[in-house]
Amino acid sequence: MSGSVVVLSGGLDSTVCLALAVEQASPVTALTFDYRQRHWVELDHAAGVAGYYGVEHEVVRLELPRWTSALTDKNVDVPEAGASGDEIPPTYVPGRNLIFLSVAAGVAEVHGADAVYLGVNALDYSGYPDCRPEFIEAFTEAANLALKRGSEGHLIDVRTPLMELAKAEIVQLGLERGAPLHLTWSCYRGGTVPCGRCDSCALRAKGFAEAGVADPALS
Amino acid sequence: MSGSVVVLSGGLDSTVCLALAVEQASPVTALTFDYRQRHWVELDHAAGVAGYYGVEHEVVRLELPRWTSALTDKNVDVPEAGASGDEIPPTYVPGRNLIFLSVAAGVAEVHGADAVYLGVNALDYSGYPDCRPEFIEAFTEAANLALKRGSEGHLIDVRTPLMELAKAEIVQLGLERGAPLHLTWSCYRGGTVPCGRCDSCALRAKGFAEAGVADPALS
């Protein structure tokens, strides 16, 4: 094992993921994407979390002219939690995890890291297709065929340790591991205080409520 | 069929690919990556080619702090043609086609395009693993699992019409289709005139020589 690359948004899930990677697969490079997201405040939180752990932090800037989503286009409203029912909500960003993982795999090859960590979750989540285990499995195969190291039989492992956990279990895991949950940011709307009403805020609140603890980022 | 996204570097292969896409899958969006490549002059050539066809042209800016390659790092020399033997040469950019295709797939979803074109070639090529058909096949599966449209059964098709062609056949195909080969740029070294000695220049020269025609970009 020669380290890992962790996709770090600065939110709850990716911070818990980083906590696990620091234990399991150091040295860690935390990778954060500046994609002109509405909630760019998460970039500062990602830097704070990476600083807390003292890991290398790389910010990748990605300017896509028309990446239509409520998260990147201020003309599209962020819906209230649950408003999209069973549909994929407008906060879906086309190909986001595919792109983020692709960059992370390239960075892993550059750094000689054997693993990529992504904090996706298919239980308490917003229904995005690129959070499902079947996508992660197919991506891993494609990435290993694309990379020099993979083509030489030295495979990269894509790890999604939160995939099967409920949000409350993620909160508990983070607390157990001493993850700096007080430094994290989840709200899709950005600003200075979380809106408390978007899908991401609602999932986070549900997690802390079910875990029976107060959200340290709100105190 | 509702159009396509073509990854356009401004080189010979991607320009021939664009010529085919314009015939087969219009409307076309040409997608060019500004990744701080040494041969950034290709961006101007891509704009020229897209302008020739009058297709939409999007430039995606991608800043990766340490994307180590002879194509992105001026401290690494671009080798002379053939110098790397059977090894993958230092002009290999870790995960480049994986990343480019991922972005193209996301853009295709945004535009409602059904196909992505990539001008890779596994015959007269530099030995990059992300130019092989097995990678393209695995990527297509991963992308369709990642995208909303794919998860709804509306699959994206990744087309690599040059995959099995020799460079001379690509030149001939471009001439037959009236592709603006005089506007293209292939040299890895950048500058104002092609170096004539890098792998990319050598493959291009071989193609024109075997096709029995003069390179219109050199006249």
Question: How do the helices and strands line up, and which of them pair or pack?
Answer:
The structure is a homodimer of 219-residue chains.
Chain A: E1 4-7, H1 12-24, E2 28-34, H2 41-53, E3 56-63, H3 96-111, E4 115-117, H4 133-146, H5 148-151, E5 157-159, H6 167-176, H7 199-211
Parallel strand pairs in A: 1-2, 1-4, 2-3, 4-5
Average pLDDT of chain A: 90
Highest-level CATH class of chain A: Alpha Beta
Low-pLDDT segments of chain A: none
The tally of structural domains of chain A comes to 1
How much β-strand is present in the residues of chain A?
5-15%
Strand order of the largest sheet of chain A: 3-2-1-4-5
* Helix amount of chain A: 25-40%
Helix count of chain A equals 7
The CATH homologous superfamily name of chain A equals HUPs
Structural class of chain A: alpha/beta
Q: What is the CATH fold-level name of chain A?
A: Rossmann fold
